[in-house]
Amino acid sequence: MSAFFPPGGSGGRGAVSLIPSILVGVTLCVGPVASALTNRYGCRAVTIAGAGVAAAGLAISAAAPSVVFLYLSIGLGTGELGTLNGLCPSSFTC
Predict the structure, then answer these.
(1) What's the pLDDT score for residue 31?
(2) Is the pTM of this model over 0.90?
(3) What is d(CA 28, CA 26) in angstroms, rounded to the nearest whole number?
(4) Radius of gyration over alpha carbons of the chain, in Å?
């Protein structure tokens, strides 16, 4: 953690460990939305769109200035938008 964020300004281990928790929680909670999008637009289109959004979220996270930014970019951006449209349709409905 100290290689990426200076001590004193970004929180401790608990703050950083919340990032994957948000990612997994959001991914699992928005599964019904992914199913509805897959039924409407098809598995291939939804999965490709989700992969693009997830890649963009991770790329934006590389330049994160704070842990709060990572909450939004990885936790919500990659979790909700990316894996919502990429992971759920390809794993469960295709």
Answers:
(1) 78
(2) no
(3) 6
(4) 15
